[in-house]
Each structure stands twice: as C-alpha cells, then as structure tokens.
Amino acid sequence: MSGGNQIGTYKPIACSVYDVLEASAVKRQLLRLEMQSHNGIIVRNASVLDLFSKDKTEFLKGKDSSTGEEFTVRLDQILLITDLTTNTVYSPTTC
Fold it and tell me: Considering the entire predicted model, what is its pTM?
C-alpha cells in the first residue's frame, strides 16, 4: 500500500471523515482501516502519522500497531474506518 499503488482516478472522501482522520492523528487514536489494494482488501489496526496531498491526491501515512510498519494509502482506497476507542464506524464516501 505504498503511494505507487494507484487504483483509478482519485475521488475525494467525505469532509467529515477527513476530519475524523485529522483528529485521530492529533490524538494518536488507534483505527481499524479496511483498504482496497490491487491484491484485494487489506485490514490494519493503525495510528495516523500524517495526512498529505500530492498532485491533487490525498494520502494517509500510518503505522501498523502489530508490526510497527509504516505505510501510505490513498484516502479513496480506504473502504471503512473504525475508531477502536469508541467503536464508531465511518464510511468514506465522496464529498
């Protein structure tokens, strides 16, 4: 799930979900991310290290809580987000 794994044209996620990701980054909350990749769906429990844009595309840099591995995913590749503190589930639909 590096920045090079592009799947189609970028579609912005819902602004309210972006706000959730920003708050999680600030609070270092653990999230469960279900993400689309070329190899199928990947699920990671991770903290958000950074949110950034490159070439009009938004990305999340995260750290897997099990392995310590850092990864980058395009925001529109995230299918489902679960806040593991509150068990709230977010579906990142377009803005």
Answer: 0.86
